[in-house]
Amino acid sequence: MAASAAPVGGARERILSSAYELFTRRGIRDVGIDEVIARAGIAKATLYRHFRTKDDLVLAVLERREQLWTYGFLEQQSQLRGDTPEQRLLAIFDVFDEWFSTDGFETCTFVNVLLEMGAEHPTGIASINYLATVRNLVRGRAEEAGLADPDDFARSWHILMKGSIVAAAEGDQQAARRAREMGVALIERYRVATA
Q1: What confidence tens digit (pLDDT) does each residue in 20-45 have?
Q2: Cα separation, 87 vs 144, whole angstroms
Q3: Contacts of the segment 163-168: beta carbons below 8 A, 24+ positions apart
Q4: Closest alpha carbon to 139 in 124, 156, 163, 164
């Protein structure tokens, strides 16, 4: 889910595409502005004309990540793979299974930025908000499925999601499948009994 290695388009787009690829692969602190400038093929003044600070650039990258990953990848792909809300919940882990096996699997940018920059930093706060968007997607599907306490369910499900990402980063090639199995049990636990 990274941007292409050869950014095209206007200066702002080249900067954002370059920063997206660098930040999602290596983190925020490891990538300097000069590297973004070199990758984008622009002058330093051009970067600062579009993004006043590095934090502004990181915030733009996080916004793009939400559009590309949360909505364009996770939500869309899991929606297509299930006919019922419960199937669409479980399909999240099918999507993860494919994501985890891609070349250059880059883990979760939101979690990475939160851990790297901290919960009080503007980019950490933004990451918390973007993670809440993912949790809200899960909560919506739990509501559609008629599961009990959709908020509590979504928080538990989100732990499975984040845990499987970390396990995949550790090299567990079965992480998504294991999380999916736990997801089946979690759905059963929150399923409202109908008489």
Answers
A1: 999 999 999 999 999 999 999 999 99
A2: 11
A3: 164/93, 164/96, 164/100, 165/96, 165/100, 165/107, 165/108, 165/111, 166/107, 168/96, 168/100, 168/105, 168/107
A4: 156
Which pTM was predicted?
Answer: 0.90
- Burial (Cβ within 10 Å: 0-12, 13-18, ≥19) of residue 62: buried
In angstroms, how far is the first alpha carbon of the chain from the final one?
44
Each residue's pLDDT tens digit, 69-79: 999 999 999 99
DSSP track, 16-57: HHHHHHHHHHH-STTS-HHHHHHHHT--HHHHHHH-SSHHHH
Cα separation, 191 vs 147, in Å, equals 5
Contact between 139 and 82 (Cβ < 8 Å): no
Q: Residue 191 phi/psi, 5° resolution?
A: -65, 130
